[in-house]
Write a structure and sequence with these properties.
The protein has 455 residues and is mainly α. The chain has 19 helices and no strands. It has helices spanning 14-17, 26-37, 46-52, 57-81, 88-96, 98-130, 136-153, 155-185, 194-197, 206-215, 221-226, 235-264, 277-322, 327-330, 341-350, 359-363, 366-388, 396-415, 420-440.
Length: 455
């Protein structure tokens, strides 16, 4: 038999070309965003914000949602221009230049690196409370190992796990609302406006704004969706749609759950302010609902850790591929799984801090990075569409100038209401990032490496 002398067929698989697989559609992206935002996250800071606002948690969620819709729209618009991994880092880099892009990405790292850690810490707290014989650090280590393994296996496993997590939360929400309605209907006169007007213990708009500054971290899912553009089937259409859908749905869920909770437990006096949601569960359904809530919340936290670790690993991958951070480590893709394995492991090691840090300190610094990045993305819409592309006729003035500037004003408004500790930690983080950039660019005598947009 004659030898086959035809040239070999090149391997065009994602693994061979060092690319991320395009496997995610709108439903998977929306689920990713919803799991990342965690519908039950309303109960994470329930006691803190309820007491801060004098029983106006529901109103505070409406204010936060209104602010986040404008920013989500800016993310959706920029995701059609740059459908690549990197999120605000990519948008800002390509619009304002590499140094500004680096600082935007660096600010997001503050948020993304700490969010998985927050979930691991909450898992440790709740499971240790349920099973006192096992210390929190064992639960933290176990959850880190589980989430890391799932992320290394691949994004498809993450998407499949998301569906299960959302399903369990949906079941709990149905049970919680049903028991709450039964309890409320048997409690006599109910003030349906109380969750919006408050109990009178705290007055003025200031506390609501301070609460909204904390609650904005609940909406980080739309940013997380944008980091998966390179793994979306049709990123210029599916990613923008998923961003807006997940933002609105999650905001309405947060409002509804907080509204029902404040009707069933119309008080801001809790046995423990950090676990104030347990008082709500006891009032609505006794020990049964308390146990059901703990189990569901822990599973939801695992789901959020899963998606948040996946997102920050892909931001690190984008910056490693850029060469601003270590290309050899962070820019590495597994040939077997086509996932950024080393970046995932870096996030896991960083998350070990959850063993030593306390919940209050950790929760207080998460919003800073998000609001900086949100502000930057709102500005990129104005720069790209209104200034660079000169799209300024008729309704374009509204869509390309007015709306993103409203989003910028609202995020800045929330930013000014962050705590002093948050500002100190956040500004210190940005200073470290600026110093790193100055060293990398040799005192800015060399250009900052730019992101390679070719897959």
């Amino acid at each position: 038999m004659a030898a086959d002398l035809s040239p070999p067929v090149p391997d065009t698989s994602a693994e061979a070309q060092g690319r991320l697989r395009r496997v995610l559609g709108v439903p998977s992206l929306v689920l990713f965003g919803l799991v990342y935002m965690v519908p039950l996250t309303v109960f994470t800071t329930y006691g803190i914000v309820t007491q801060m606002t004098g029983g106006r948690l529901s109103l505070t969620y409406l204010v936060t949602l209104a602010a986040m819709v404008f920013t989500a729209r800016s993310y959706a618009r920029m995701s059609t221009v740059y459908p690549l991994a990197g999120s605000a880092y990519t948008y800002t880099q390509k619009t304002f230049g590499a140094p500004v892009g680096f600082l935007a990405g660096w600010s997001l790292l503050l948020d993304y690196l700490f969010l998985p850690m927050l979930n691991y810490l909450v898992i440790g707290i709740y499971l240790s409370a349920a099973i006192p014989a096992v210390p929190p650090w064992i639960w933290i280590l176990t959850s880190i190992a589980l989430v890391t393994a799932l992320n290394i296996v691949g994004i498809v496993s993450v998407a499949r796990a998301n569906a299960l997590v959302i399903g369990l939360q949906a079941l709990f929400i149905a049970v919680f609302v049903t028991l709450s309605v039964v309890t409320i209907s048997g409690s006599g006169t109910v003030d349906l406006l109380a969750p919006l007007t408050g109990d009178g213990s705290v007055a003025g708009a200031g506390p609501v704004l301070s609460g909204a500054a904390i609650l904005c971290l609940s909406f980080l899912g739309f940013d997380a969706i944008s980091t998966l553009s390179e793994e979306s089937k049709d990123p210029t259409h599916s990613v923008p749609r998923a961003i807006m859908i997940s933002t609105v749905i999650s905001g309405l869920i947060f409002f509804a759950l907080s509204y029902v909770s404040q009707l069933v437990f119309p008080s801001n006096k809790f046995a423990d302010i950090e676990s104030g949601s347990l008082d709500v569960m006891t009032a609505a359904g006794g020990q049964f609902l308390n146990t059901f809530f703990t189990a569901t919340y822990v599973v939801a936290a695992i789901g959020c850790a899963l998606t948040s670790q996946a997102s920050v690993a892909r931001i690190l991958f984008a910056m490693g591929r850029d060469g601003v951070l270590s290309r050899r480590v962070l820019g590495h893709l597994s040939q077997r799984f086509s996932t950024p394995t080393f970046a995932i492991l870096v996030v896991s090691v960083f998350s070990l801090i959850a063993i030593w840090i306390n919940l209050e300190a950790l929760a207080s610094i998460i919003s800073f990075g998000a609001l900086v990045a949100f502000s930057a993305v709102n500005l990129t819409v104005v720069k790209h569409y209104f200034i660079d592309q000169a799209q300024r006729s008729g309704v374009e003035i509204l869509t390309n100038f007015a709306l993103p500037l409203i989003g910028l004003a609202l995020t800045a408004w929330l930013w000014t209401n962050l705590s002093e500790l948050t500002m100190v930690v956040g500004l210190t983080w940005l200073t470290i990032g600026f110093a790193w950039l100055a060293i990398e660019a040799r005192g800015f005598r060399r250009p900052t490496p730019v992101l390679d947009l070719n897959e």
